[in-house]
Structure formats: structure tokens, C-alpha cells
Amino acid sequence: MKDINIGGRLVGLSHPPFIIAEMSGNHNQSLDRAMALVDAAAKAGVHALKLQTASPDGLTLNVDSPDFLINDPSSPWHGRNLYKLYKEAVTPWEWHKPIFDRCARLGLIVFSSPFEPAAIDLLEELNAPCYKIASFELVDLPLVRKAASTGKPLIMSTGMATVSDIEDAVNAARSEGNDKIILLKCTSNYPSTAKDANIATIPHLQQMFGLQVGLSDHTLGIGVPCAAAALGATVIEKHFTLRRSDGGVDASFSLEPAEFCALVEESERAWASVGNVVYGGAAVEKKSLQFRRSLYIAKDVKAGDSLTDENLRIVRPGYGLAPKNIDVLLGRKINRDLSIGTAMKWEFIG
Questions:
Q1: pLDDT tens digits, one per residue of 174-197
Q2: Ranges of the chain with pLDDT below 70
Q3: DSSP line for 46-68
Q4: DSSP 72-87
Q5: Whose CA is closest to 20, among 45, 54, 53?
Q6: Which UniProt keywords apply (predicted)?
Q7: CATH 3.30.300.30 assigned to 8-55+90-274
Q8: Are strands 4-6 and 9-11 parallel, antiparallel or unpaired?
Q9: Cis peptide bond prior to 323, omega within 30° of 0
């Protein structure tokens, strides 16, 4: 799988995971807070900040019927009207340029999830380096095609998606001549549990589509994304907030700055730990071989004496014959005087 350049950073299996902090609606409708999130993300060492570019009218209809209410009791948005929720959560479009400018000054890659065609037009004006297709929009093939037609990398979440849904979206992007595609394993539950993450899907998706695969994660903590990094996830996306206690539409399943800092560090460690299949000791272990056990003379002996379990022992260090030879050596006579602490050699026999 080839590397993909996103905003000047190479993303691929030969690089540490590309870490994305998702602002979503955690700005709580305050531009000052949005800017504080940008600053905190840069300080935490994340590689990219992601917005959501949407409007309530581009997402749903302004209707109060039951179809437009969230009726899942376990949802953090239970009972909310879709239109009113989205009105609260969206990032105002006029905020995008100042946020993009702030990220540029801080050296932070910034892009967005467009939820309607006009959003892509806005993001093109801002020269967004890539596009993220959210799980719920994966089936919106016209939106996928429009984003793909820009020629920029496409990161597509696959929450709820069947293999057929994913194939349709990938084919839609490729129909525009765009093969710079990264899929994200995602569980579209907020928050989700580690048990529901099913990150074994990551290498399976890689093999099935021949594409890079990452993780869009809604679990608490950093354990799941670090495990995903060890399974080959090239991208990790999690929601980001200044403080969960501040509230907000996504606060309950978002990481705080110190947690994101740990995620950057620990996911890179997880990635680096995979390495290659190695037996017989890695290069860095060679100096430790001396501390293995081997056969040593344990009492002074004279030429003609027989080796016994009292004068020949398996001890550290490892400069003598291998311990596996002890049964062959016991009872054999030595051909010279040897003092205690002599590493046993074959030349001392006979």
C-alpha cells in the first residue's frame, strides 16, 4: 500500500499513525473556545485537527415528527430533535477561515468532514488538504464522488457499513480517478465499548480492498486506538475537548488534551513495537547473551578426574558449553587440571 500525502505529512504503514483530533461540536458555539481547542491540539502534538462542515438544512428537515427525534435511551442525545441538535453542533461556516488560519500559524494540518456539496465548495476555497466522509454519509455516493473529484485524499469511516456499502463508496471515489483512499474502522455508537470495537476488522479490510485502514474511535481512553496501531491502523481519529466537565454535544466520549498527548506517544510506541518476526534474539539482545546459563567447573579438578554434578554445574554467565550437553559430559574424564570458575570446553575431555 502506497503512502498518501496529507498536508505535507506521509501517511502509511511505514510511518507512525496519523493522529486526528475531531473538534466536532465541542466548541460549544464559542469561537474563542474553538480557537482554544486549536491551540490545545497543537500543544498536545496531534497531527491534524478536523472540523465538521455542515448546516442543519443540509443534514435534515426542520420537522418535529417522531422520525426526526433520537429515541435511543442509551444515546447522549436521547429525546433530541435532529434539526435542533445539528443547529447546536455545527461549526459556523464563517469560523472556518480563522480556524484554518490559526492552524496554519501553529503548523497544524486542518481539514473537515463535508456533509453537503456546498461544504466541499467552501473547503476548496480554503484549500483543505483532504476530505473525511463520515460513517453516516458513506452511502451518499454523490457526496463521495464530489469530494473525490477534487483529487485530494479521501478518508472514509465505515460505521454500520456492509462490505457492499464500502465497496460502493470505494468504487464511487475511484470512478472519479481518485485512489487516494483511507478507510476507517468505526463503531457508530456514542460512546462505544472496547468489546464493540472489533478492531480485528482492520487487517481484514486492508486485505479486502488493498487500501490503508485506520480507526475512528468513540471508546473512552486510549487502549483501543493503541491496539489498533499494533494491528496496522495508519490513522487514528478521536473526538477532542478541553474538559469533559464543560459539557457539549460530544463531550462524554471525547479525550482531553493530556489524554491526546498520551495517545500520540503511546500509539507511536505500539506501532514501533510491531517490528518483524524475529527469533534467536534481536540485535540489541546480543550483549545479554553473556548472562545466559552455561556449563562451568564448580570445584577444582585434576587430570583424570570424572565430571560429576558436584564439579560441573549449569550457572551464569554463558561462556561455557550449552547446558544441553551436561548429560553427555557427566562421567567423562578430563585431560587437565581445571580450577573452579573455568568455562567448560570440549577440548577438556579425553
A1: 999 999 999 999 999 888 999 999
A2: none
A3: -SEEEEEE--HHHH-----SGGG
A4: -TTSTTTT-BHHHHHH
A5: 45
A6: Transferase
A7: no
A8: antiparallel
A9: no
